[in-house]
């Protein structure tokens, strides 16, 4: 973990097990960018919100949204020009010969690629 300047802990809150790697990054001076989940909660409590960059929902909010039936990736795609552009670019590919249609379809159907 030495010489790292940034620690990205960007999983959806409540969806991945948390280890102590992010704590090691923080102890060595790296800035943490992440969701309010797992060890990031402990880090935030220890160092204060001004010393960690937290974004997104917490685990309870993510679970409630998933269980509510109100989350619609397709609706978000249809109403966001920026997201529409990005996913359409993915569909067209990046000149590497790889087809990303299936990935885009999975994201729009389930919201998490599963």
Automatic annotation (TrEMBL):
<keyword id="KW-0119">Carbohydrate metabolism</keyword>
<dbReference type="Pfam" id="PF00343">
    <property type="entry name" value="Phosphorylase"/>
</dbReference>
<keyword id="KW-0808">Transferase</keyword>
<dbReference type="InterPro" id="IPR035090">
    <property type="entry name" value="Pyridoxal_P_attach_site"/>
</dbReference>
<dbReference type="GO" id="GO:0005980">
    <property type="term" value="P:glycogen catabolic process"/>
</dbReference>
<comment type="similarity">
    <text>Belongs to the glycogen phosphorylase family.</text>
</comment>
<dbReference type="InterPro" id="IPR000811">
    <property type="entry name" value="Glyco_trans_35"/>
</dbReference>
<dbReference type="GO" id="GO:0008184">
    <property type="term" value="F:glycogen phosphorylase activity"/>
</dbReference>
<keyword id="KW-0328">Glycosyltransferase</keyword>
<dbReference type="GO" id="GO:0030170">
    <property type="term" value="F:pyridoxal phosphate binding"/>
</dbReference>
<keyword id="KW-0663">Pyridoxal phosphate</keyword>
<comment type="function">
    <text>Allosteric enzyme that catalyzes the rate-limiting step in glycogen catabolism, the phosphorolytic cleavage of glycogen to produce glucose-1-phosphate, and plays a central role in maintaining cellular and organismal glucose homeostasis.</text>
</comment>
<protein>
    <recommendedName>
        <fullName>Alpha-1,4 glucan phosphorylase</fullName>
        <ecNumber>2.4.1.1</ecNumber>
    </recommendedName>
</protein>
<comment type="function">
    <text>Phosphorylase is an important allosteric enzyme in carbohydrate metabolism. Enzymes from different sources differ in their regulatory mechanisms and in their natural substrates. However, all known phosphorylases share catalytic and structural properties.</text>
</comment>
<dbReference type="GO" id="GO:0005737">
    <property type="term" value="C:cytoplasm"/>
</dbReference>
């Amino acid at each position: 973990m030495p010489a790292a300047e940034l620690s990205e802990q960007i999983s959806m809150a409540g969806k991945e097990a948390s280890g102590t790697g992010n704590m090691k990054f923080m102890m060595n001076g790296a800035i943490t960018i992440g969701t309010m989940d797992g060890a990031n909660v402990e880090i935030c409590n220890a160092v204060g919100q001004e010393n960690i960059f937290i974004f997104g929902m917490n685990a309870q909010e993510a679970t409630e949204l998933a269980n509510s039936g109100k989350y619609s990736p397709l609706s978000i795609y249809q109403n966001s020009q920026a997201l529409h552009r990005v996913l359409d670019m993915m569909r067209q590919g990046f000149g590497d010969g790889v087809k990303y249609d299936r990935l885009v379809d999975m994201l729009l159907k389930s919201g998490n690629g599963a």
